[in-house]
């Protein structure tokens, strides 16, 4: 795949992230973007899902992870 990118921005991202390759920079950036967008989705749904779990059940679920 070929993509035209701002070389200065890519180099700055590589330097700041400590990545060794352009591919590593792009994969890191994509992972961070996906993570941020997932959090945004979760926040948008906050308070819209009703859970009928007890405090003990929630604790057990956390411990199982």
Describe the structure.
Pfam families: VapB_antitoxin (PF09957). The structure is a single chain. Helix 1 packs across helix 2 (22-44). The protein has helices at residues 7-17, 22-44, 55-64. The longest helix is centred in the middle third of the chain and has 23 residues, at 22-44. Helices cover 68% and strands 0% of the residues. It has one domain. With 65 residues, it is mostly helical. The model has no long low-confidence stretch (mean pLDDT 93). It is built from three helices and no strands.
SSE ordering: HHH
Main sheet?
none
- Classify the helix fraction into a percent range: 55-70%
**Integer-rounded radius of gyration:** 19 Å
Q: Please, how many helices? A: 3
Give the distance, in angstroms, between the N- and C-terminal Cα atoms: 37 Å
User: Spans of 5+ residues with little confidence (pLDDT < 50)?
Assistant: none
Q: Give the beta-strand count.
A: 0
- How many domains, as an integer? 1
Overall geometry comes to elongated
Strand content: under 5%
Judged by helices, strands and strand pairing, the structural class is mainly alpha
* Mean pLDDT over the full residue set: 93
Write the layout of secondary structure elements.
Blueprint: H1 7-17, H2 22-44, H3 55-64
Helix pairs in contact: 1-2
